[in-house]
C-alpha cells in the first residue's frame, strides 16, 4: 500500500471495496496531538477484545500490536508506515507505541464504527466464542 498516497491509492480502494470497509477516519497518537494522551495510551495497552474486526492502516510512525496465540501467549507484531492489520472480532490484544512515540493510523470499519473495548476477561461474548472455535478448527 502507498501510505503517502492513501487518498488515491487504487490498492486501498480495492481492499475497502472488497471488504466493505465503508467508514474510516484517521487518528494521530502523539502527546501533542491526542487529547488525554496518557490515559488513552494506558487504555490501548489494557488487554481487551472487540465485537467487530479492528482494521488499522499505518500512515506514519510505528508501534506494536500484541495478540494472544492459541496457547494464550503474547505475539508482538511490529507495525510501520504502509502496514495494514485486521484483528478479528474476539481476539485479545493491546496496542503500544514504540520508542518513536508517534503513529498516524487509518481506522476502517464495516458500517458505523463501534469503539467499545471489553477488557479481559470477556470470554462469554459470542465473538470470543466464535474466535475460539476458529482457533480450534484451524488446529
TrEMBL record:
Transport as UniProt keyword: no
Family annotation (Gene3D superfamilies): Jelly Rolls
Class in the EC hierarchy, top level: oxidoreductase
GO biological process, one term: L-methionine salvage from methylthioadenosine
Record GO terms (molecular function): acireductone dioxygenase [iron(II)-requiring] activity; metal ion binding
Keywords: Amino-acid biosynthesis, Cytoplasm, Dioxygenase, Iron, Metal-binding, Methionine biosynthesis, Nickel, Nucleus, Oxidoreductase
Localisation per UniProt entry: Cell membrane; Nucleus
Annotated SUPFAM superfamilies: RmlC-like cupins
Protein name from the UniProt record: acireductone dioxygenase (Fe(2+)-requiring)
Cofactor: Fe(2+); Ni(2+)
Superkingdom: Eukaryota
InterPro entries: ARD (IPR004313), ARD_euk (IPR027496), RmlC-like_jellyroll (IPR014710), RmlC_Cupin_sf (IPR011051)
